[in-house]
Structure formats: structure tokens, C-alpha cells
Design a protein that fits this description.
Blueprint (H helix, E strand, L loop, with lengths): L18 E2 L2 H29 L10 H19 L1 E4 L3 E6 L5 E6 L3 E7 L2 H5 L3 E7 L6 E6 L1 H20 L2
Antiparallel strand pairs: 1-2, 2-3, 3-4, 5-6, 6-7
Helix pairs in contact: 1-2
Length: 167
């Protein structure tokens, strides 16, 4: 089966074709990490220098170590996200230490939303959120290009209506 963007949804062996998230999401998250932890480093350094003296201001380097660790972890988390459209359901896989795979049958979808907050809009990103009857199975695909998010929303809505009409 072929999607609207020219990609086959299932490989020849019946395995789904996984689609990863665009790199814009990783850039956005890493920039936010650098901005917030950079500001924290400066604030802690100035405060410790003012209150306890210059030797204590060295503790301001701790947020920089946290920034380096967070940089790597954000990359691993971003690489773990993927989704696949199959004939009867949507697969969403994520997680580095604890792998989570969500299967959402098209016939169970009640609402498909495309959202984009101010920071996401600045980076040209959108998220697709799927709502089902069971709140525990709601799923989100973050950081998609707006055109892909709208295509996915339209396709999932169309398949959901067709599958639920057949129930």
C-alpha cells in the first residue's frame, strides 16, 4: 500500500516501513537545552560569586555537565521515535531504556489532532495526537513537518471513519 507521500507502508515481507522523526525536533530540543541550562549556569555562577566568593562559582560548571549529558540523551531519545502505517493500524515506537510500542487500530480512533505550540511553530514543526475510547491508548507523534502532520491526520481520519463504519 502506498501513502500520499509516495512511501510504501509495508515492505515486501509484510514488515512495516518505519518512518523516523525529522531532525528539526532534535535541533529544537537541543537549542532549548542549551538556552535554559546556559542561563542557569550564568545565574548560579553569578549568585555563588556574589554570595560565597569566586572559588564557589566553580560549582556553576555542574549545569554544563548536565548539558553535555542531556545533549547525548536527547539524541538517543530522538533516534528511538518512529511510526509506521499498516493496513489496519498505526504503530508508534519509542524509548531507549524502556521500549514502548503502541498499536492504534484505525477503527478505534475517535479524534486526530494536529497541534503546534509557539516554539514548535517557530521551528516549523507540528505534533499529531490520536484519541481513542480508552484514554490509556492515546498516542502522540511529535515534531513532524506540518505538511506530513496534516497528511497523516487526513489519512488516519479517513481510515478511522471507514473502519468504524464497518463495525
Amino acid at each position: 500500500m502506498e501513502t500520499g507521500n509516495g512511501q510504501d507502508t509495508e515492505a515486501a515481507e509484510g514488515e512495516p516501513v518505519w518512518i523516523g522523526l525529522p531532525p528539526g525536533l532534535l535541533r529544537m530540543r537541543r537549542l532549548l537545552l542549551v538556552v535554559w541550562l546556559g542561563l542557569l549556569t550564568v545565574a548560579v555562577g553569578l549568585l555563588l560569586n556574589w554570595v560565597a566568593g569566586p572559588s564557589w562559582a566553580a560549582f556553576a560548571l555542574l549545569p554544563l555537565a548536565l548539558m553535555a549529558w542531556g545533549w547525548v540523551m536527547l539524541g538517543r531519545n530522538w533516534a528511538s521515535w518512529r511510526y509506521a502505517e499498516r493496513a489496519d493500524d498505526l504503530l508508534i515506537s519509542k524509548g531507549v531504556l524502556w521500549r514502548e510500542e503502541t498499536i492504534v487500530p484505525y477503527g478505534r480512533m475517535q479524534l486526530v489532532e494536529v497541534t503546534s505550540g509557539p516554539v514548535e511553530r517557530h521551528f516549523g514543526l507540528s505534533s499529531v495526537q490520536l484519541h481513542t475510547a480508552a484514554a490509556a491508548t492515546d498516542a502522540t507523534i511529535p515534531g513532524l513537518d506540518p505538511a506530513e502532520a496534516e497528511r497523516l491526520r487526513d489519512r488516519l481520519t479517513e481510515l478511522g471513519q471507514a473502519r468504524s463504519a464497518g463495525l
